Amino acid sequence: MITMDDHTQPAAVRARGIVKSFGTGDTQVTVLRGIDLDIYLGEMLLLVGESGGGKTTLLSAIAGILDIDAGDIDVLGVPLSRLPPGKRTVFRGQTMGFIYQQFNLLPALTAAENVAIPLLIQKIGRHEAIQRARAMLDRVGLEDRTEFLPKNLSGGQQQRVAIARALVNEPRLLICDEPTAALDGPNGQKVMALLREVGRSPDRCVVVVTHDSRVFQYGDRMARLTDGRIVGIESIVREGTA
Amino acid sequence: MNYVALKMLFGDRAKYLMLLCGLTFSVMLIVQQGSIFWGLMMWSQASISNVNVPIWVTDPGIAQVDEVKPIASTAVDRVRSVDGVEWAVPLYKGLLRARLASGDYHQITLTGLESSTLIGRPAEVLEGRFEDILQPDAVVLDQWAVERMGGPGIVTVGTIFELNDKLARVVAIAKTQKSFTNIPVVYTTYERALRYVPRERRALSYVLAKAKDGLVVDDVIQRIREQTGLGAFTEEDFGVKTIMWVLKNTGIGINFGTTILLGFIVGMAIAGQTFYLFTVENLRQFGALKAMGASGLTLARMILLQAFTVGLTGYGLGIGLATVFGFLTARGGSLPFVETWQLLLLVLIALLTICAVSALISIVKLARLEPAIVFR
User: Fold this and answer.
1) ipTM rounded to 2 decimals
2) pTM
3) Interchain contact, B285 vs A104, CB within 8 Å
């Protein structure tokens, strides 16, 4: 069941007037046309809409990995879109976690080593980073797969490694791009349940780009993008909680 | 992140091996060709290094050590009279034909040493006593002469042969550096050398000299030039002059230079292309690292670490292989192969340049990389 938006938590992400185009001249394509969006702590927001609607571009802009042409994005009170690239990178490493459609695990590294990467980037010693990575893999149910290479893991297990990697440095904003696209139904449900659990934490929030309607039930709100505009933001009320 | 960089490098085994092979081959080619080239250069001035004296006095128009331009015999006394010269002795050097008992003829280089001092004699004697050169008709051969004239079974201590119809008796075999032309060297006294060769108006080939202790050799050389009108060089300068003549008047420099350059270019091309492909194929991974907070500097350091790790491994392997080649082929002095630290340093610099340029191409690619690539 879907209801209209009603929120009292502080905004973790505050986007205003976001415009983004690609190309120049006759080949210029405007992908985002003045997006306004708030994402609150303690929620999981789903970005949905047709392909080419601008979901991934908006996600990249929120994550600070894509420069925008106009507008402002504040993340956790920091004017991210106005930070110089270097500071933006540092901020991203300290506050955000990423989950990708294609997992993007480094094939030469074991599961534990992959999970340890965000900690290594933060200059935490390798021994400690691996210990914490193992503990995080334990939390996602992969305690017996810590020394496996990605190629020896199933798609669901690889995505759980990616989730462990995204969570290992305890990010306050979790950015997920089609996290269930490469997974079968049951594995997709498990992954979303895990993300939902993270999103429930009062000092964190999760943004998920998806077009998999089977996982809509896990979100708290859903923003629908069409042709570079948000055409509706709705709260999702799950059966039995309304 | 160094650990991650190295795991990424070694994890892609096929590319790692291709990179390693390319760089190893490049280093091996440069070191091998460079060592042979330098060996040839050492051979070309072997007549100087075998004599081992500080100052060579020559005809002023001399081009190189093997192109003897005789000077007047009075030159020895004129050099001795120059202020700062401690001693000066004559040296004869000329080509002659030796006739063995078997009737075989061999061209030889006859070297006549001043009999009272034997200055210019080889440092090491393999067989017999060098001092026996003072006996009547005595000559000393170098080991290459033994080899060229038929081997130890034919030429040894006690062997008698003819030089210009005059008797020569081998009393010792000396060890010398092989020369570029590999013409056998026959040592005798200066006076006897003049008896062996046809009479010429000017018979003196060189004056060997030494500056007094404490004096600047270059100053003494300058005085010799000014006061005698002759040419005068330090041993090093005469060697360099000879090497430069060889480089200028033979195709050796161009030949070896081309091969060494090819080694450099091939190494650069293979390393650059493979490394670039390695980076391009890992762009998503690098993009993910960038998205996770890895700075451009961190990624650049990772790339450099990868490049220099494979580069230095290739350097070690390449030098090892070139050294083994040199050891196997240059044993016994049949091939000139001189691996100097200067050459190894130059190759290291060349290799680091290859690695740095290869890494730089990848770093530029990564610097332009938008981490948003990971969402595509």
Assistant:
1) 0.79
2) 0.73
3) yes
